[in-house]
Amino acid sequence: MAVGFVGIGAMGEPMARCLLRGGYRVFACAHRNRERLERILAEGAVEAGTPAEVATHSSAVITCVPDAPQVEEAIFGPHGLLAGAATPLSFIDMSTISPLATRGIARRLIERGHRFIDAPVSGGPVRAAQGNLTIMVGAQAKDFKALVPILKTMGTPTHVGPVGMGETVKLTNQILIANIMLANAEALSFARKSGADSETVRAVLATATGANYLLEEWLPKTWFANDFAGGFALDLLRKDLSAALEAARAMNLPMPASAFAYQLYTAQSAKGDGADDYSAVAKLYDQFV
Amino acid sequence: MAVGFVGIGAMGEPMARCLLRGGYRVFACAHRNRERLERILAEGAVEAGTPAEVATHSSAVITCVPDAPQVEEAIFGPHGLLAGAATPLSFIDMSTISPLATRGIARRLIERGHRFIDAPVSGGPVRAAQGNLTIMVGAQAKDFKALVPILKTMGTPTHVGPVGMGETVKLTNQILIANIMLANAEALSFARKSGADSETVRAVLATATGANYLLEEWLPKTWFANDFAGGFALDLLRKDLSAALEAARAMNLPMPASAFAYQLYTAQSAKGDGADDYSAVAKLYDQFV
Question: What is the extent of the structural domain holding B213?
């Protein structure tokens, strides 16, 4: 079976590799980073000139791009997937976007006789490479059942509700990580300013009630290693937080902590760290420590 | 060896039980809750009329009370531990208080020829009962070595630095839990308002980057069970946050997220939930969900 992939980026590259390992034929087209595509082609993927051409060869297509406008372009653009799609084509959007946008895109595809599921992921490039992502799927039950083997090559898919609910649960995770990363940054800065040894503190707190994944698994590779390259870009987190705040606004739900966190991440982005890992928000405190 | 215990409260009761299980003779005096003392006496502890009398019988004394004024009273009050202490006596303060207060108390005791270590704990009553607390110890190396067998009956002690550093690391944990609990409350409210099934969301996020101890171990017993009795009182968390903000102020360190969180916990306390578990802060969102 042939699966198309649009968005061979930091996540898309290892995810496409998982599909190849799982025995799928993969059709992909150039993304911003030609090197990533070349590596995938060298491992057996086939290049297509445009998303439309990707769709022509595929019975399911995956989009994994930064935000809703890019999903729109990849599907509905002049050379988009839809232009080359035989009916019915299965669309799997693994981008993190607003669930409002997701439901709009799904409606337009379903009207045309296609299938659509949203399947955003959590785990970052390291777990993507291991085929060990958490995959949150919004779908009709029959579509989930039909497409779950594709998703299983990349991680553990869970059916969390109808179309759009995958994005909702993903944004729920992003609300968590935005606030928890800030909590870690503020707490560790407090400890450091007090003269505590950061590594001792990290080790002890891993066994205390403040224990969290980011402190145990993420910060040792970024803040503790003083290496903010790679990881998950601060500006992408801001985009996700913005989508969560937009969805909350549409529901009349106040999210005071996340709105406040958004402002602090924006301050750090304004200082030039938007492309760095979002743990760079800890630098806000460095000037005082 | 005889160990004195002042503060047989929600934490002190199971901690004193650990000492008895560990083979220590335990001397204790009445706290606010007479029933807790009675249970400990029935298991072999010996009642003393005052902290002074506790000290007379003990070669090490533990204080585990709500805040610095209560530690002051228990040690330096007219019937306090110091009044009955033979020199040298080992003081172990397991309360969570400001490290500034800790260092002042330690200085006054050491001047008088006594020993002092701070050894606050994390884990809550359930882990206290299991003898499985995280214990963060600020001490001189020789005092840590001398007193670690006592602490080991209650959990896992780690020597994190000189006197006061135990409190610093404990407050670091409290900064984390205050912000992480709020993050969980806001994120889960977002998911619920969006129509997601809370239990499904919890299970999926336990494998995602937002995974945290409070979501996995604490909220199932409180917010998910709609049972906010017991646990860790919201007003005690406010007291800890206040101590952390005071210590930060003394160091000229801004803590914007924690200062903001403090205001939200205060709002919920003002609604009458100060004695409930601090996860009751989630009720701030309930009115909108």
Answer: 168-286
